[in-house]
Amino acid sequence: MSKHPRRESPAKAARAQAEARTQAEAARAQADAEQAQAELAEAEVKVAKEQDAAIARALQEDEAHRHADLEEVAEKEAEAVPDWPPDP
């Protein structure tokens, strides 16, 4: 047996380098995909918060309109009912 270590063939070294590049590219693609997913989740949370705020504003406006409508109806009813007992 020889005491000299065997040298790797150039083709095998090239394949190993190509595989390492492929793995690095796959890792970068995975990291990019994870970043995109995180950004999408943040955007979805932002949209949900904006929708909640819009719904809350709409409900508040609806309640204000309902209250105004009830006051208007009460005023009209009060005007329609004669004073009782009538003034002598």
Brief synopsis:
The protein has 88 residues and is an all-alpha fold. The protein is built from 1 helix and no strands.
Question: Layout of helices and strands, plus pairs?
Answer:
Layout: H1 10-80
Summarize the structure in words.
This protein is an all-alpha fold. Helices cover 81% and strands 0% of the residues. The protein is built from one helix and no strands. The chain has one helix spanning 10-80. It is rod-shaped. The chain starts with 9 loop residues before the first helix and ends in an 8-residue tail after the last helix. The model has no long low-confidence stretch (mean pLDDT 90).
The radius of gyration computed from the alpha-carbon positions, rounded to a whole number of angstroms, is 38 Å
Q: Could you give a short account of the major beta sheet? A: none
The best one-word shape is rod-shaped
CA(first)-CA(last) distance: 135 Å
Overall pLDDT score? 90
Which regions contain 5 or more consecutive residues with pLDDT less than 50? Answer: none
* Tally of DSSP β-strands: 0
Helical proportion? over 70%
Helix tally equals 1
SS class: mainly alpha
Jot down its keywords.
88 residues; mainly alpha; 81% helix; rod-shaped
